[in-house]
């Protein structure tokens, strides 16, 4: 068995706002093998994006990682200086964001932006950097890459822009890329393309992917393992097929039921009743209890993580009964 | 421009009769008549305006009532002094203000940033003539480091004298320049800070960080380029405002520029000079706006200055 | 807490009290107002009664005990005038000019702005065109030109100050009123037989007031500064009404010979007044502007 490239243990990232402490990430643990694709699914506000930022040490105030550890290839990132962290970012671990309109700088050419990313870690002269940039753009499927380097982001389509962002994230062939809903802002037809390209690129370079999304359908077509996040906690995780076929947590079941593919034609889609609880005043027990069809009084108490083979869930009354 | 010139001309005409200032009350009638005819003051208003307009289009702004030399020569002789002072002030204010503002926007909660913001608030609210007085009191009177008035030695280039090329001239320019630059400085700090603060929160910065860019690269390459657009706009407008404020600074520091000329003209009811000055200022404002528009296209690729 | 939090004013006051700087500045403004109003009773000397002045006391340094038998804490000016008294009277005049110009500017500007927003069409185009043209022109230059046009004197000066400032009020009122006008309830009010006047006074005006008050605070401070600047340039009030700017101007020639106090102390009074008003204005603006609230 290979050593995990990333090991996250009991990660807690809290935001200290004027109204109180928001526990955006509350005790998240998982590990990632080299080249593995991991899906992280949850509603907006469930803490999945903050989890992603925490992995890169990019949590902005008033947020802060309060406890837990993130080990990249066995090295605890919490012990690194800002400078050392910066040297990891982009080279060992990088990130792609949701909206390419917002991530690329509108007043710098694409070439300049790739050049900045290259030279952040690699001292090379302009010509070499330009060759590398051309190669990177070609690799993500941008035709005529050499001339396109001198274009500005607004001269690209949305999908092309996201390809540029992917090229920047992959320029140093990092160990891990955190992809935070990179296809959500794009047209459906482009979504599938990008999805497959990223998977192929990751496979070629042996890069592990953490694919963050609210869209269970997208993620399940891609990821080998799934993690379902709710209110800052991982409520269920396991191999994708197992989670899809045999969900244990009622929340996962709810997500599955709301997928159009799962619904019978002519019947309305099922939805999970209620809405996400305020992260400011979470009850001590299961955060899903108020919306859960199976909730009982025991759910008001702390719920432990139940291991079950390669899977795990966090529920007193899992679907299909306890093992 | 035309409308502007009519308003200015009629307005200035309404100020008062310059004859009372120009001619001694006990002057004989024939002297009076001669002077009136000499300056064309016996013509009706619209005739005076038309004559004026025709002359202006030929580059002739008439004669100064007081100095009795062509207004254009008079203004051109004073223009370099004001131009160099205003440029010194605006450039100085921008080159110091923008970095300070970027820093204050980058670290909004640091006490040094709050000090910078305090400086900017003071720059906005404290009248500039008062700052000028304090500068003179401190550096010229108490410490005796710098001269408080005049232009000092000048070097002739293209037939006009410039102070900034001699050490002595520079030392004369320092105090009025600093005085005049304060408003620009305050404005630049405020703008750069607001822009930086906003940009630091965007995904562009976060994506840059995620790619491993150093903070200095982010500030120098991403942020500076993004805030340059509003800054260039205000920079241009500031040049105009600074020319106006030069009136005050030049009076305090006895800087022989346009500002001092206009104050003297107002007190002496030197009509042609006032008209010419105001037209010049209006012309400057129009030119500046034009230049800003052109600069935009260079700075913001989205406006289509370059195409793929 | 003294202020109940359930009324809008109570909430506003409580929030204001949280900012120590703003409260301090507010107290300073109030103190200056009181002192300025009561100047004839507080000042040790009537600085413009020639009978009480003695040239023997002229240009004395701070602390000098003059022929009047009391000490001149802030020194005396070229005419042997007690500077402290002169400053108190000067504050009075400066404040009067600032408040008058501010109030009239507010009235004219708000009227124009609301009219433009309410009538719209060509009226709006003409009014706002003029206003914008004026806003692009530095107020000091405008005031300078007007003083030159109208001549010197109190009325002329106030007119110049108003002309230089009203455009800010007009812009603000126009912005607030046109935003308000497009809201549904004005449409609804238009549908009912409410008179036009009532719509303007009951709906548009009250909604324009908060931003106008903010602009007013800042503009009063600006008017005071502008008046001081014009007076300093010798284009302000007649000599019979010495505002702070004129006191500073009078002392300027003596500064080179080290008699700093004649200019510096009136200047401090001016700065404290202007900065305090601005600080209060800043706080009020931050509180009224929901975008800045975190």
What order do the helices and strands come in, and which of them pair?
The complex is a heterotrimer of chains A (323), B (308) and C (294).
Chain A: E1 6-17, E2 20-32, E3 37-41, H1 48-56, E4 63-72, E5 75-76, H2 82-88, E6 93-96, H3 100-103, H4 110-119, H5 126-139, H6 145-148, H7 158-170, E7 176-180, H8 188-205, E8 208-213, H9 216-220, E9 225-230, E10 233-239, H10 240-245, H11 250-257, E11 306-308, E12 311-313
Helix pairs in contact in A: 4-5, 4-7, 5-7, 7-8
Chain B: H1 2-15, H2 19-22, H3 29-38, H4 45-57, H5 71-106, H6 111-125, H7 128-142, E1 155-157, E2 160-162, H8 167-200, H9 203-210, H10 215-252, H11 258-268, H12 271-299
Antiparallel strand pairs in B: 1-2
Helix pairs in contact in B: 1-12, 5-6, 5-8, 5-10, 5-12, 6-8, 7-8, 7-10, 8-10, 9-10, 10-11, 10-12, 11-12
Chain C: H1 8-18, H2 20-37, H3 39-42, E1 64-65, E2 71-72, H4 83-119, H5 121-135, H6 139-150, H7 154-181, H8 184-191, H9 196-232, H10 244-255, H11 261-288
Antiparallel strand pairs in C: 1-2
Write structural notes for this entry:
The complex is a heterotrimer of chains A (323), B (308) and C (294). Chain A has 323 residues and is α/β, with parallel strands linked by helices. Chain A folds into two domains: 1-92 and 175-189 and 204-261 and 273-323, Rossmann fold (3-Layer(aba) Sandwich); 104-173, no CATH class. Chain A has helices at 48-56, 82-88, 100-103, 110-119, 126-139, 145-148, 158-170, 188-205, 216-220, 240-245, 250-257; strands at 6-17, 20-32, 37-41, 63-72, 75-76, 93-96, 176-180, 208-213, 225-230, 233-239, 306-308, 311-313. In chain A, helix 7 (158-170) packs parallel to helix 8 (188-205). The mean pLDDT of chain A is 83. In chain B, helix 5 (71-106) crosses helix 8 (167-200), helix 7 crosses helix 8 (167-200) and helix 10 runs antiparallel to helix 12. Chain C has a domain at 95-271: MetI-like (MetI-like fold, Orthogonal Bundle), CATH 1.10.3720. Chain C has helices spanning 8-18, 20-37, 39-42, 83-119, 121-135, 139-150, 154-181, 184-191, 196-232, 244-255, 261-288, and strands at 64-65, 71-72. Chain C has a two-stranded antiparallel ribbon. In chain C, a hairpin with a 5-residue loop joins strand 1 (64-65) and strand 2 (71-72). Chain C is elongated and about 75 Å long. Chain C starts with 7 loop residues before the first helix and ends in a 6-residue tail after the last helix. Classes of the chains: A alpha/beta (323), B mainly alpha (308), C mainly alpha (294). Chains in contact: A-B, B-C. The B-C interface holds B 11-12, 14-16, 121-122, 124-130, 133-134, 136-137, 140-141, 148, 237, 240-241, 244-245, 247-248, 251-252, 262-263, 266-267, 274, 278, 281, 285 and C 136-138, 140-141, 144-145, 147-149, 151, 221, 225, 228-229, 232-235, 248, 252, 255-256, 258, 260, 263-264, 267, 270-271, 274-275, 278-279, 282.
């Amino acid at each position: 068995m290979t050593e995990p490239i990333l090991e996250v243990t009991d990660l807690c990232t809290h935001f200290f706002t004027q109204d109180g402490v928001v526990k955006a990430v509350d005790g998240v643990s998982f590990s990632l093998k080299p080249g593995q694709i991991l899906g992280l699914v949850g509603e907006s506000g469930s803490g999945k994006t903050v989890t992603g930022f925490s992995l890169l040490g990019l949590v902005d105030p008033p947020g802060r990682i309060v406890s837990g550890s993130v080990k990249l290839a066995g090295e605890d990132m919490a012990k690194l200086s800002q400078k050392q962290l910066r040297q990891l970012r982009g080279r060992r671990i990088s990130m792609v964001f949701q909206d390419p309109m917002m991530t690329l700088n509108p007043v710098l050419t694409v070439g300049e932006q790739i050049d900045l990313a290259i030279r952040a870690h690699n001292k090379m002269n302009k010509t070499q950097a330009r060759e590398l940039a051309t190669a990177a753009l070609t690799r993500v499927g941008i035709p005529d890459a050499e001339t396109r380097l001198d274009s500005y982001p607004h001269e690209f389509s949305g999908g092309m822009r996201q390809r540029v962002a992917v090229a920047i994230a992959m320029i140093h062939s990092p160990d891990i890329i955190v992809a935070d809903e990179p296809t959500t802002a794009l047209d459906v037809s482009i979504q599938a393309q990008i999805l497959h390209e990223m998977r192929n690129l990751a496979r070629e370079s042996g890069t592990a992917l953490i694919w963050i999304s609210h869209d269970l359908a997208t993620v399940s077509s891609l990821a080998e393992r799934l993690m379902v996040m709710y209110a800052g906690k991982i409520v269920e995780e396991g191999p994708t097929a197992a989670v899809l076929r045999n969900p244990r947590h009622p929340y996962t079941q709810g997500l599955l039921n709301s997928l159009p593919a799962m619904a019978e034609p002519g019947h309305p889609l099922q939805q999970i009743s209620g809405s996400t609880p305020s992260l400011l005043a979470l009850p001590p027990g299961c955060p899903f209890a108020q919306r859960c069809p199976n909730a009982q009084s025991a759910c008001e108490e702390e719920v432990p993580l139940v291991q079950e083979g390669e899977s795990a869930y966090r529920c007193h009354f899992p679907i299909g009964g306890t093992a | 421009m035309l409308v502007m010139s009519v308003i200015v001309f009629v307005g200035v005409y309404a100020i008062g009769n310059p004859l009372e200032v120009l001619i001694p009350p006990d002057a004989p009638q024939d002297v009076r008549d001669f002077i009136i005819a000499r300056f064309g003051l016996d013509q009706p208003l619209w005739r005076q305006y038309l004559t004026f307009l025709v002359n202006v289009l030929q580059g002739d702004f008439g004669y100064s009532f007081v100095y009795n030399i062509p207004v254009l020569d008079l203004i051109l002789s004073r223009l370099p002094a004001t131009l160099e002072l205003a440029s010194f002030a605006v450039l100085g204010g921008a080159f110091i203000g923008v970095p300070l503002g970027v820093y204050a926007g980058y670290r909004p909660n640091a006490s040094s940033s709050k000090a910078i913001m305090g400086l900017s608030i003071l720059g906005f609210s404290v009248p500039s003539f008062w700052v000028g007085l304090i500068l003179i009191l401190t550096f010229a009177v108490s410490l005796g480091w710098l001269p408080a008035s005049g232009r000092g030695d000048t070097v002739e280039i293209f037939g006009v004298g410039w102070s900034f090329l001699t050490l002595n001239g520079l030392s004369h320019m320092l105090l009025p320049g600093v005085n005049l630059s304060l408003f620009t400085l305050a404005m630049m700090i405020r703008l750069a800070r607001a822009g930086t603060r906003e940009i630091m929160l965007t995904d562009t910065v976060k994506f840059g960080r995620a790619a491993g860019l150093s903070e200095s690269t982010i500030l120098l390459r991403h942020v500076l380029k993004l805030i340059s657009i509003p800054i260039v706009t205000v920079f241009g407008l500031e040049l105009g405002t600074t020319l106006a404020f030069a009136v005050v600074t030049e009076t305090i520091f006895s800087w022989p520029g346009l500002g001092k000329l206009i104050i003297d003209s107002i007190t002496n009811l030197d009509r042609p000079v006032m008209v010419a000055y105001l037209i010049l200022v209006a012309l400057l404002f129009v030119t500046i706006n034009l230049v800003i528009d052109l600069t935009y296209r260079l700075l913001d690729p989205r406006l289509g200055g370059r195409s793929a | 807490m003294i202020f109940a939090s359930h009324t809008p004013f109570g909430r506003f006051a409580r929030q204001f009290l949280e900012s120590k700087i703003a409260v301090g500045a507010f107290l300073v403004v109030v103190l200056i107002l009181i002192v300025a109003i009561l100047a004839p009773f507080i000042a040790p000397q009537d600085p413009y009664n020639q009978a009480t002045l003695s040239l023997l006391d002229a240009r004395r340094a701070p602390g000098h005990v003059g022929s009047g038998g009391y000490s001149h804490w802030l020194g005396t000016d070229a005419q042997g005038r007690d500077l402290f008294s002169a400053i108190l009277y000067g504050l009075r005049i400066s404040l009067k000019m600032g408040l008058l110009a501010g109030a009239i500017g507010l009235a004219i500007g708000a009227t124009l702005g609301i009219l433009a927003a309410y009538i719209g069409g060509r009226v709006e185009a003409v009014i706002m065109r003029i206003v914008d043209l004026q806003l692009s022109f530095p107020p000091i230059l405008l005031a300078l030109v007007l003083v030159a046009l109208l001549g010197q004197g109190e009325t002329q000066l106030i007119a110049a100050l108003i002309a230089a400032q009203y455009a800010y009020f007009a812009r603000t009122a126009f912005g607030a009123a046109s935003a308000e006008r497009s809201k549904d309830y004005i449409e609804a009010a238009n549908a009912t037989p409410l008179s036009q006047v009532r719509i303007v006074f009951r709906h548009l005006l009250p909604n324009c007031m908060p931003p106008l008050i903010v602009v007013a605070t800042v503009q009063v401070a600006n008017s005071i500064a502008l008046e001081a600047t014009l007076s300093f340039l010798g284009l302000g009030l007649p000599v019979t009404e010495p505002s702070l700017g004129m006191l500073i101007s009078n002392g300027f020639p003596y500064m080179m010979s080290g008699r700093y106090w004649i200019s510096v102390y009136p200047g401090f009074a001016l700065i404290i007044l202007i900065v305090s008003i601005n600080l209060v204005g800043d706080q009020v603006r931050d509180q009224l502007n929901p975008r800045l609230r975190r």
